[in-house]
Design goal:
heterodimer; A: mainly alpha; two-stranded antiparallel sheet; 3% strand; globular; B: two-stranded antiparallel sheet; 2 strands; transmembrane (chain B); cell membrane (chain B); Branched-chain amino acid transport system permease protein (chain B)
Chain lengths: 286, 322
């Protein structure tokens, strides 16, 4: 029983980690709290839904489309909108992100109505048993492994490429990075594109596992906050640790207290971590 | 200078008389619309105390609204209190809650404070959804106000108006006292304020608590007006968003900015939803984006600066782009 709960939590936690990875990157590098993050996840989910429904493209294959489409959207938004006022106080960019969130959600609402939809894949309910008492849903396991792959790619981009070096130097000191020849505007746009692309990937995996609707973004943004705060900013390990912690805590909490307590548990953890360890469980990693 | 002050007082007096007399000459629908504007004006002005003057951008102020609403509902429905007592208790409870939460949370700065307050509000919503005394997600009814229909519209309008005037007056008086200067010092540079001997913990906790007091009052009136409340609209994060957008749109850190913001945002939303049934929120989002890019200092600044030209609107971009 306990093993099953922990495994469910870990599998869902992987998805939480992917959701938070993009948010953590954008927050850490540009000091933008992307309130619209959940809306980008929603766009990723709908990309997969339409590709599956209209063209019959398998959700796991559509991952490549949702990541690239969302990357382009993110790149454009940063380059032509957020970059205009990026040096203003963080509060201003936060409100701007609010505006973007309202815009995207309602555009989706107008285009696709408030209907709750589901990507019905044939293999959706398949699972296998491990030993006598642990059942593992195949799709969730696949999604979890993809999270690890995407996380590794992220890690590689940030730590082993020129782009990654520009991103990290810009995060440390914008003016110094500019002085040594980093194209800051482009780096910011690429960073936002990467973060939003990761949100798109999370959206695709979400749409395979859960029902989707244009208004699904709000709670996902809040969950991403919780994960980013638990893990702390500044490393790829943060969101993973935060995601798994939240996933397991939620799974245990809703089993013992009932699923209506899920949000109470998440947000209590959020507030407690902020008060007790404002830099996340990993501590001063930034 | 003195002449100026006298003139401002005169203008304020005129506006106040205008607002007080206006319900007498119009229909119930407009009075109700005015009541809504006043309610958001209270919340945006109360947010201004902690967000605008003290520089702590609270993203969870709706929690005080919800606490106010639920205190009134529970006290009137379950304990048989009269509205006057329930109203006072609602504000006070919200204020005390703000002190208890503020002491740990106000140690955080910037983003972290914003997210922590958001977390407090969401946790409180989830708690209210699960508690028995608040009747969870099914909501809670309040006793009806025993008055004629017209009388009810008047009652809620003037309650909101009185609360707004009390809020603005308190803010005005405090701003001209040492306390107000402490808040602005904290906003400009908290460490410096600390080093010159300002008790910053006391000042910002009091500011948070005052902000909660008036937001709680607004919640109390709202609950009595609705006669039925549920956790989702009472604690929704959208209310927080609305009060912040109004404060910013009107002018943060200016006494009348939030009032002006509440008025313009409500009127704009109303016109939009009249003309575009489905897409009005889409336009609303566009307005928020345009306003924050081109006029981050708010309408109040445009009115007082009187320098309306292209370069005024491009100033923000020129200063802050990369």
């Amino acid at each position: 029983m306990l093993a099953q709960i922990v495994i469910n939590g870990i599998l869902k936690g992987g998805l939480y980690a992917l959701m938070a990875m993009g948010m953590s990157l954008i927050w850490g590098v540009m000091d933008i709290i992307n309130i619209a993050h959940g809306s980008f996840i929603m766009l990723g989910a709908f990309t997969t839904y339409w590709l599956f429904t209209l063209l019959g493209i398998d959700p796991f294959v559509s991952l490549i489309f949702s990541i690239s489409i969302l990357f382009v959207i993110g790149y454009g938004i940063q380059k032509y909108l957020i970059n205009l006022i990026i040096r203003a106080s963080a509060f201003i960019t936060l409100i701007l992100a609010f505006g973007i969130e309202i815009f995207i959600n309602n555009a989706a609402l107008v285009a696709w109505t408030a209907d709750v939809r589901k990507v019905k894949v044939a293999y959706g309910a398949s699972n296998f048993s491990l030993g006598d008492w642990v059942t593992i849903p195949t799709v969730r396991l696949l999604a979890f492994m993809l999270v690890i792959v995407i996380g590794t790619i992220f890690f590689f981009i940030l730590n082993r490429t020129d782009l990654g070096r520009s991103i990290r130097s810009t995060a440390q000191d914008l003016d110094a990075a500019q002085l040594v020849g980093v194209d800051v505007a482009r780096t910011y746009a690429l960073t936002f594109g990467l973060g939003v692309g990761a949100a798109g990937a999370a959206g695709t995996l979400w749409s395979i596992l859960f029902p989707i609707s244009p208004m699904m973004g709000g709670i996902l943004t809040l969950k991403s906050f919780v994960v980013v705060i638990i893990g702390g900013l500044g490393s790829m390990l943060g969101p993973i640790l935060g995601g798994l912690t939240l996933g397991v805590a939620e799974a245990m909490g809703s089993t013992w207290f009932g699923s209506t307590y899920e949000n109470l548990i998440s947000f209590t953890i959020l507030v407690l971590v902020l008060i007790l360890r404002p830099k996340g469980i990993l501590g001063g990693a930034d | 200078m003195k002449h100026n002050a006298l003139r401002s007082f005169f203008i304020c007096g005129l506006i106040l008389i205008g607002m007080a007399l206006f319900p007498l000459f119009t229909n119930n629908f407009i009075i109700r619309f005015g009541t809504d504007i006043l309610m958001f004006a209270i919340m945006a002005s109360a947010w201004n105390i902690i967000g605008g003057y003290t520089g702590y951008a609270s993203f969870g102020n709706v929690v005080f609204f919800g606490i106010g609403a639920y205190t009134t509902a529970v006290l009137m429905e379950k304990a048989g209190f009269g509205f006057a007592l329930a109203y006072a208790s609602s504000g006070l409870l919200a204020a005390v809650f703000a002190i208890l939460v503020g002491l740990p949370v106000l140690r955080l700065r910037g983003h972290y404070f914003a997210i922590a307050t958001l977390g407090v509000a969401e946790a409180m919503k989830a708690l209210v959804q699960n508690l028995e005394i608040t009747e969870g997600n099914s909501g809670i009814y309040l006793p009806m106000l025993d008055m004629s229909v017209r009388g009810q519209y008047y009652f809620f309008f003037y309650m909101m108006l009185a609360t707004l005037v009390a809020c603005l007056l308190t803010t005005y008086i405090l701003l001209n006292a040492k306390f107000g200067y402490s808040l602005i010092a904290i906003r400009e540079d908290e460490d410096a304020a600390n080093s010159v001997g300002i008790n910053t913990t006391y000042a910002k906790t009091m500011a948070f608590s005052l902000s909660a007091l008036f937001t709680g009052f607004a919640g109390s009136i709202y609950a009595y007006q609705q006669a039925f409340i549920k956790p989702e609209p009472a604690f929704t994060v959208h209310t927080t968003v609305k009060m912040i957008v109004m404060a910013v749109f009107g002018g943060m850190g200016k006494l009348f900015g939030p009032l002006l913001g509440a008025f313009s945002i409500e009127v704009i939303s109303e016109i939009l939803s009249d003309h575009f049934l489905v897409a009005h929120a889409l336009f609303f989002g566009t307005i928020v984006i345009l306003a924050i890019v081109f006029t981050p200092k708010g309408i109040m600044d445009i009115i007082t600066e009187r320098k309306l030209n292209v370069s005024y609107f491009l100033e923000n971009i020129r200063k802050h782009r990369v």
